[in-house]
Amino acid sequence: MNLVQILLPLAGNDGKRFPGKRFAAVREELMARFGGLTTYLQSPASGLWRSEDGETLHDRFVVYEVMVERLDRAWWSTYRRELERRFRQDALVIRAHVIILL
Description:
Layout: E1 2-9, H1 20-34, E2 38-50, E3 56-68, H2 73-86, E4 94-98
Antiparallel strand pairs: 1-3, 1-4, 2-3
């Protein structure tokens, strides 16, 4: 089993928050495709990183998770590019972890 996590930014690079319907669309798409979803919305996570010129950048994001038996890398890669377009991101993180259900 694999746990796939999608980190979605709350706001664009201009600081303007994305509308709730943008997040709702992602939830609906994941539910339709995978039949289940976990969202972490109440306490947005915070990320820090350094740009190539040494500037410290900050982002607040929510995490969506789905569990899948088979990891379709091609589908996830295409979906990541689509989410990057919708959320106006140069790079958006989608990561997968192998898990063991107990």
